[in-house]
Amino acid sequence: MPNYPPLLMHALAIAKTDERIRAVVLNGSRVNPAVMPDAFQDIDLAMYVRDFPTYPCDFARFTAYGEVLITQTKAEQVFDPDDFEGDIALIQFASGERLDISFWPIETLETSVINDSLSKILIDKDHRIDTQAEPSEVSYHVKKPTEAMFQSCVKQFYFLTLYVAKGVYRHQWAYAIDHLRLMRHGLEAQIDWSLIAKQSLSTGKHHAKYPVLLDSGDYAAYLKTFPTASKASVTLALNQLLELFAAYAMRVAKQQHYAYNRRNYARVETAAKRWMHKGPPVR
Fold it and tell me: Sorting pLDDT into bands at 50, 70 and 90, what band is 283?
């Protein structure tokens, strides 16, 4: 038996004695060879059950492991619901350990394992999976953009600058910062697309690999795109976004032979920077 942590052993013991649980798969960072283990790693378990529609998803069995700080189930998630077929519970123990456990129809096992390369089968009572590749990040590698995706990203990025300008002019910092966040999403897409020209890769959850993948100057500039609620900070963030986006969009355009010219959006940049301080010209 592998040297699994006690919480995982507790969950597996339950699964082994429950005849309707036919398979158990460990997902996420615990099986990711590219992730450095730490004390905050969740245990992400997917349990595949027979006759799923009538299966009583009893999560209390798993909380018996230890003192629980808080739990959240799919049924309770009314405010911001997840839309998927299975049932899930997030269980945070006072010890710091966390178990994210989900139940799925056994009929979805093969497809789930194929679609998620960060999967390791721990229990397969019916021997449904003959062979399985070693877990890897391949399912999460950045995909090459089509030219339509690239151009859509560019146009949306520049359009959003005017929303930021409006927020700054009105001193609506939450509004301005939220639209900077949307601009950053476009920047991150360009950065990711630029990185896959040399090799297929994942930039990590929430772009956690940027400190390693980007040169130190670009990463420092990227961090400056996260502003505080002040005119100076938001202005700096906007300028950093504009400079970084142009550099990476040009890089992607050259790599993929797509059209991009920052000068085509110079009027938008100029208007945004002016309107932040003086507002738009009124006729």
Answer: low
